[in-house]
Amino acid sequence: MRRIFQLFHTELSGVHQAAFLLALATIASNILGMFRDRLLASSFGAGVELDMYYAAFRIPDFLYAVSLFFAASTAVIPVFLETAKENEPRAKQVINSLFTIFVLAMIVILGAAFVVMPALVGRLFPGFDLKSAHTVSMLSRILLLSPLFLGVSNLVSSVVQSYRRFFVYALSPLCYNLGIIVGILFLAPRFGLAGIVWGVALGAFLHFAIQLPSLLALGYLPRFVFSVPAEIRSVLAMSLPRTLGLTASQLTFLAVTGIASTLGAGSIAVFNLSYNLQSIPLAVIGLSYSVAAFPTMAELIVKNKLNVFLDHLIAASRHIVFWTLPVSVLFIVLRAQIVRTLYGAGAFNWEDTRLTAACLALFALGIVAQSLVLLFVRAFYAVGKTTLPVIINVLSSLSTIAASFLFVHMLSASDAWARTFAALLRVGDIPGAAVLGLPLAFALGSILNAILLGFGFGYVESEFKKRKLVRSLGDIAGGSVLLAGVSYGGLALFARVFNLNTFLGIFLQGLSAGLCGIALAALFLYIRKNAEFMDISKVLRQKFWQSETVAPEPEHLL
């Protein structure tokens, strides 16, 4: 027991070890998240109830992005580190001032949102009838508690991350999902959808509360103060671009949800369920590496060690591609098995499965790009260049919104192109295939974002262009092609072995095919002596679980 408590206070020893430990915590959180989504899908299916539930998050999500103007760890950590290095009592004053400003500002913002919520819902989601719009408004008002709790949680995590005592924050997403599951299992039977969103609010509170012991152990206790240190201006100046970038992303989700609300019942649910699935590798891989690297990169810039900083950035980039490209391939090949295994129960029927699987395949096209975006944005923040990534994020978001309208319009037509596209994803006979335009636009927008950020960072730091980011891309691509071929062939082979009319049969078919593909791809990389593969093997042989971990502020509520 003593060793468990020591994990709350030990320090980070390396980026790869931290990324692995964070990945383990994230996997555990995502297992709970998948269980959460399975409960939702099996209870409601891809229908209007789940549409209302997911739509209710959009406005609180947007306000949460706004709240990061005061609480983004990517802005707080560098300023806090620099201040604490010279004067720790003043660093405490900075945190207390941020806490005061955040709480007062959010009370005003959330109060105003509570009042105008019905009008906002009616305008943003035109596909809902009056009764559904009223329900969405009611749910959204409850969810306004979440930005408040998560924002305070972000400030707390900035302190513990700065002191490299981060294990407890790895537990906070688990608590968040546990709160939602409590809402589904115990509150929903009595209060319906309102019970579930009360569970979300509970999870957000737990996300904050579990970090308090570590914060207190460091000698910090947030309190209201009414002085504004000069460092606050630096935090807000750095947070503004980050906030603008995230609000642009949330505006994309608002637009996409508004479009989906006009495409028929279940469209919002299908989009969100598939998005949640593609977010798993994004969180486990992309977020783990980018967040594990960020405190180190920020400290290296403070110490004026640009070359070492670039080494960390390139290493994290290569490892992100190493993991996410094969995972994207698996998601495309095994999409039906993944969706049916995770969601295929109760009210979630075969048509729901096929449409969600098709959306997942399109989302998977952008997983590598989304993961690199997370890292590149933090690299910009580490070097103090915050304006350019905002401009790029806004342009990419606008492109995604425009492409969403275009693709949905094209797929709504009954011409040969629309039929061919739907048939390629094996949903040609299902009504509502126009929703496929949304994940396609999202994936292409992510690819554009990653490309522009990569070139943009090379413009800001010319030394970055001299580094070989794709040194071993050929090996990774070759292994991924082998993975795809073997896994696809394995599906046909194991279809003869397992009973595909049962949950266990579908699960074992997908698992067996995937493991065969992974084994052959791993053997290929081993024979090629791939540098990333050898790095991972070395880390796995170490006791990386004895290392500390880091975690970021969540970028949305669900």
Number of distinct beta strands: 0
Mean pLDDT equals 86
What structural class do you assign from the helix and strand content?
Answer: mainly alpha
Total DSSP helices: 23
Give the low-pLDDT segments.
1-13, 544-552
Main pleated sheet: none
Provide key terms for this protein:
single chain, 558 residues, mainly alpha, 23 helices, globular, disordered N terminus
How would you summarize this macromolecular structure in one to three sentences?
The protein has 558 residues and is mainly alpha-helical.
Report what the structure shows:
The chain is mostly helical and 558 residues long. Helix content is 79%, strand content 0%. It has 23 helices and no strands. Mean pLDDT is 86; it is low at 1-13 and 544-552.
List the helices and strands and how they pair.
Blueprint: H1 2-6, H2 15-44, H3 48-55, H4 58-71, H5 73-86, H6 88-124, H7 130-143, H8 145-162, H9 167-191, H10 193-209, H11 212-217, H12 231-260, H13 267-302, H14 306-333, H15 335-343, H16 350-364, H17 367-382, H18 387-412, H19 416-424, H20 437-460, H21 473-495, H22 503-527, H23 531-541
Helix pairs in contact: 2-9, 2-13, 3-7, 3-13, 4-6, 4-8, 4-12, 5-6, 5-8, 5-12, 5-13, 6-7, 6-8, 6-12, 7-10, 8-10, 9-10, 12-18, 13-14, 13-16, 13-17, 14-16, 14-17, 14-21, 15-16, 15-22, 16-20, 17-20, 18-20, 21-22
